[in-house]
Amino acid sequence: MGITPRARILVLFLSIVVVSGMYFLFYDEDISSKYNSKTPCELNDPDFMEIIMVAVNGSGDYKIICREKTEEEKHKPENLEEHIIPENIPIRREIIDFWQNFRGPGNCTANECDAYCSEQENLNECISWCKNNSDLCPDFKLEEWQSKLKQNIIFVPVDVYIIKYNDDDLSSIRNKENINSLFSNVNIIWNQANISANITKIEFLMINDNSIYSSTERLYSYVIQTGNYDKNKINAYFVKTLHGSNGIALPGNVIMIADRTTVFDYRATSHEIGHVLGLKHVGPINRLMARGVNGFDLTDDEIEIAQSNALSKFY
Ligand SMILES: [Zn+2]
Predict the structure, then answer these.
(1) Separation of CA 176 and ligand 1 centre (Å)
(2) Does domain 153-314 have CATH number 3.40.1010.10?
(3) Distance 221 CA to ligand 1 centre (A)
(4) How many Cα neighbours within 13 Å face the side chain of 244?
(5) What is the C-alpha separation between 141 and 117, in angstroms, rounded?
(6) pLDDT tens, residue by residue, 58-112
(7) What pTM did the predictor assign?
(8) Are 281 and 271 in contact (CB under 8 A)?
(9) Which of 4, 97, 187, 244 maximizes the CB count within 10 A of its CB?
(10) Which of helix, strand or coil describes residue 155?
(11) Distance between Cα 274 and ligand 1 center (Å)
């Protein structure tokens, strides 16, 4: 490939500068507040600010600093350049242009990215951006974000409905204590992904039309039509029977669980939550997403998918 040594040095330089710019940009708070959260550097206001690069104690690392020009400097730009980075003047403009046009995850500018990526709901996006832009994103940042994601519990809100009919024979026999202990077991399983089902309400849902009992489809239609559920949560319906299934996951973050299950009821519930969080069926019987067995394991890939969906759906 015809890459000249000069081009190679330029690319290296841009990488260092952009990465440094992402994490080490400082600007004057008082001045920036006048600009509605945009820094004068971003607005490129020549009267106020100048972007400069400085070498850090000769180590080869660079900082980008945006600072106010002194009156003297305003009138002597050539002095400023000579004073600050005498040996890099030829590529200085390109570096600054590149940095000013830089956009990271969530379209953050270089000086916004660190704050953006410190928000839990943005961690997944930042991690995948970092993996796809390894030349611009240092490994230590990737590791920091990955370990932060692993440390934080991702709470998934769950509204629980226990279905009752006029006829006790058709009604779920579960009560609030049973639901709470079921979900404490669900959370032991999902703890491997640092995901926790957070019960936001438990309600007895009285259905007056006994014909709803006869099929899962009817019950689901009833749930959708009455519209009395929050799509921004998991809606867990506990019913006497699903006519042969242990559990079922349906659009709208709806899951349904039967009173009697051929596997542990908390495992069936955990499995359906897995579907809501984007997981598909797998073969090995030790796995949570295997069908009809008491497997509990999630792979690293499944954990990543589930966390990513939990954050995008419920945060
Ligand atoms: Zn399934």
Answers:
(1) 25
(2) no
(3) 20
(4) 3
(5) 10
(6) 334 455 556 666 655 554 434 333 333 334 334 455 555 666 677 888 998 877 8
(7) 0.62
(8) no
(9) 187
(10) strand
(11) 8
